[in-house]
Amino acid sequence: MKNPKKVSKEIIVFTSCSMVLTALGIDIMLPAFAEVRHHFAVGNDVAQTDKLVTFFFMGQIMQIVFGYLTDKIGRLPILRFGILLYTLSGFATVFSPSLPWMFFFRFISGMGAAAVFMTSIASVRDRYAGDEMARVMSLVLTLFLFTPVIAPSLGAVVLNYYSWQWVFLVPPIFAVLVFIWSFRMDESLPVEARNDMKIVELIPKLKSIATDAHFLRYVTIATLIFSVLSSYVSSSERIIGDIYQRPDLFPVIFGAIGLLMAILSLTNSYFTKRYGAKKTLRIILVLYLAAASVLLGGVLFLGNPPPMVYFFVMIALLMAFTTAGDPNSGALALEFMGENAGLAAAVDGTIFFFIGSGIGAVISSQLTNGVLPLAIGAVVASLISVILAFGDTAKK
After folding, report:
1. Do 354 and 222 form a contact (C-beta atoms < 8 A)?
2. Sign of the CA dihedral with 299 first, then 302, 308, and 311 last
3. Alpha carbon distance 125, 191 (integer Å)
4. How many CA atoms lie within 13 A of 376 on its CB side?
5. Please, is 245 exposed, middle or buried when counting C-beta atoms within 10 Å of its C-beta (0-12, 13-18, 19+)?
6. How many Cβ atoms are within 10 Å of 125's Cβ, its own excluded?
7. How far apart are CA 279 and CA 328, in angstroms?
8. pLDDT-derived band at 358, boundaries 50, 70, 90
9. Cβ atoms within 10 A of the Cβ of 244, count?
10. Do the Cβ atoms of 34 and 247 come closer than 8 Å?
11. Measured between alpha carbons, how far is 211 from 80 in angstroms, rounded to an integer?
12. For residue range 105-155, what is the model confidence (pLDDT) as tens digits?
């Protein structure tokens, strides 16, 4: 019999690496966006390469389908299918004849990442619940969040010696390794716990989940806060390279922010264990609102854009609070879902990514010569989130 402690560690690392496919599918490519624009002769139309991030996030809409299937046939088959879809579309993206084709394959790649992401979360939910789930997810995200620390620098190094195509090939190659590793993992959803729901029964189940007040409260919080993160990530190359005119600092800034995100995620694991997911999330959201307000004040009174150091210190705090609070909002949303955890996680992920990235795309489209729309978006999102979090009067 295997040592439970070792098994637990491997599950955490494997889950992190599986979820890394989502982050790696974005972060490593950001330094190469200028080369992509040059390759397809779109000049300085940075909004075109922003769509490579947006379409990837929007592919997450397939989480609903994968959620149904993973509850019905188990986690591992869907996980492996998602990795294969991610890998094949990743290679197809590199050899796309035009940007519209790249957008299409990025959407497909996002679908594959959706299967991997939601089965990873559901498998953690199979093994843990409540505050313990939030704590484990924080550990998973701590490993996961080292991706933005190293990925942009890795992308810049690859780009320095090879073409942008090689940068885009790194994620599907890594996915092949994760696919092979998956055959060491045990299925987390036993046969007797699987849902034998027919496809015609899916709609009322979805309606039941999507109209659950407790579920909607915390999914809305996660979605609003993620929209700001999505907007910043898709626009980060533009903000650093065009607005602040320092493209050489992109890997350093993005990596430093990623490091703070990882540190706060690990810190969240400790506070969640001590104070509970709900109380910790409330504290994080209040701090987020304070940081967003300071950012907006700086834009209004110091200039648009504000001084570079000021802006990125505030953005680093916002991004770190986002990733620290996400495990808590996810755990609280799924708290009472029971045997429908897989499907509920799918609805959560679909709303979280699809709607969040859509809102983020709207914010990004307004970022031209300054960062005011991003600051306003952060204040509005966090204010609504604080109201929702403190409006939860449930005892548990």
Report:
1. no
2. negative
3. 16
4. 13
5. exposed
6. 22
7. 9
8. confident
9. 18
10. yes
11. 31
12. 999 999 999 888 878 877 877 777 666 676 777 677 666 667 766 777 788
Q: Locate tokens 């969240």: which residue?
A: 268
C-alpha–C-alpha distance, residues 353 and 59, integer Å: 8
Closest by CA to 146, choosing from 2, 302, 255, is: 255
Which pLDDT value is given to residue 193? 65
pLDDT at 150: 78
Are the C-beta atoms of residues 232 and 320 closer than 8 Å to each other?
no
Looking at residue 4, its pLDDT comes to 40
User: For 51, what's the count of Cα atoms within 13 Å in the CB-facing half-sphere?
Assistant: 13
Measure the CA–CA gap between 115 and 113, rounded to whole angstroms. Answer: 5
CA atoms within 13 A on the CB side of 224: 24
The rounded distance, in Å, linking the Cα atoms of 142 and 20 is: 11
Residue pair 277/331 in contact by the 8 Å Cβ criterion:
yes
Which of 150, 147, 82 minimizes the C-alpha distance to 119? 82
Kindly state the tokens that stand for 222: 């996660």
pLDDT score recorded for residue 101: 93
**Cβ–Cβ under 8 Å, residues 107 and 223:** no
Vertex 164, ends 162 and 170: CA angle to 5°?
85
The 3-state secondary structure of the chain, one letter per residue: CCCHHHHHHHHHHHHHHHHHHHHHHHHCCHHHHHHHHHHCCCCCCHHHHHHHHHHHHHHHHHHHHHHHHHHHHCHHHHHHHHHHHHHHHHHHHHCCCCHHHHHHHHHHHHHHHHHHHHHHHHHHHHHCCHHHHHHHHHHHHHHHCCHHHHHHHHHHHHHHHCCHHHHHHHHHHHHHHHHHHHHHCCCCCCHHHCCCCCHHHHHHHHHHHHCCHHHHHHHHHHHHHHHHHHHHHHHHHHHHHHHCCCHHHHHHHHHHHHHHHHHHHHHHHHHHHHHCHHHHHHHHHHHHHHHHHHHHHHHHHHCCCCCHHHHHHHHHHHHHHHHHHHHHHHHHHCCCCHHHHHHHHHHHHHHHHHHHHHHHHHHHHCCCCCCHHHHHHHHHHHHHHHHHHHCCCCCC
- Cβ neighbours of residue 385 closer than 8 Å, sequence gap 6 or more: 220, 221, 224, 225, 285, 288, 289
Tokens of 221: 């919080």
Q: Average pLDDT in the 320-349 region?
A: 77
